[in-house]
Amino acid sequence: MTSGLKSADIQLIQRLIPHRYPFLLVDKVTDIDGTSRAVGWKNVTMNEPHFQGHFPGTPIMPGVTIVEAMAQTAAVMTGVALDLVDTDMLIYFMAIDGCKFRRKVIPGDVLRMEIETLRGKEGAKVWKFQGRATVEGDLACEAQFTAMMDLSA
Fold first, then answer.
1. What is the pLDDT of residues 57-76, one digit of tens each?
2. Active-site residue among 15, 28, 37, 54?
3. CA atoms lying within 13 Å on the CB side of residue 88
4. Tell me, what DSSP letter sits at residue 60?
5. In the chain, where does DSSP find H-type helix?
6. What are phi and psi of 78, to 5 degrees?
7. What is the pLDDT of residue 1?
8. What is the C-alpha to C-alpha distance for residues 138 and 12, in angstroms, rounded to an integer?
9. What is d(CA 153, CA 32) in angstroms, rounded to the nearest whole number?
10. If phi over 0 gives left and psi between -120 and 50 gives alpha, with beta otherwise, what is residue 145?
11. I want to staple 105 with a disulfide (CB 3.0 to 4.6 A). Which of 57, 59, 61, 91 is the partner?
12. By CB neighbour count within 10 A (0-12 exposed, 13-18 middle, 19+ buried), where does 144 fall?
């Protein structure tokens, strides 16, 4: 049971979302406040495969992976709050709005992703979130994103 949990470690994350290496982009989720808000954490390391080509000699985390990490955080928050452990939940992007990148994210950084639900509740298929990713308090990325939850997988 996950009801009442305020955080999710990597073992619980893997029971909630289907992503695996090399596309599991969140290490833990803390400060889960129901379906309202949560904070995701990603330790950015040089051994991630996208750094081989983005960019050789100047590794920068691709912006799309930052947005994906925020979406995975939202999925974990929702899964914990709605007690969806071991249910084969899938969540699909429907839209990304107002996405802006403000700072490079590089190996050695710890990405902190603050997620807030703008629209969605238990039983809803479509959810909208606001995400902000920071490194040491500096804004790296912000975006709103809409996703559809599929529990029939």
1. 999 999 999 999 999 999 99
2. 54
3. 3
4. -
5. 10-16, 63-81
6. -65, -45
7. 47
8. 29
9. 25
10. beta
11. 61
12. middle
Q: Residue 41: which of 31, 54, 52 has the closest Cα?
A: 31
**3-state class percentages of the chain: helix first, strand second, coil last, to nearest 5:** 20, 40, 40
Query: What is the per-residue pLDDT across 32-66, written as a single tens digit (0 to 9) for each?
Result: 999 999 999 999 999 999 999 999 999 999 999 99
Longest dimension (CA), the chain: 47
Measured distance CA(131)–CA(100) in Å, rounded: 11
End-to-end CA distance of the chain: 20
Residue 116, burial from CB neighbour count under 10 angstroms (0-12, 13-18, 19+): middle
Q: Is 50 a catalytic residue?
A: no
Q: Could you tell me if 133 and 100 are in contact, meaning their C-beta atoms sit under 8 angstroms apart? A: no
User: What is d(CA 17, CA 71) in angstroms, rounded to the nearest whole number?
Assistant: 11
Distance CA 77, CA 153 (A): 19
Strand order, beta sheet including 138-150: 28-33, 37-43, 110-119, 126-135, 138-150, 90-101
Q: What is the mean pLDDT of residues 99-122?
A: 97
| Token representation of residue 82 | 């709605």
- The pTM assigned to this predicted structure is 0.96
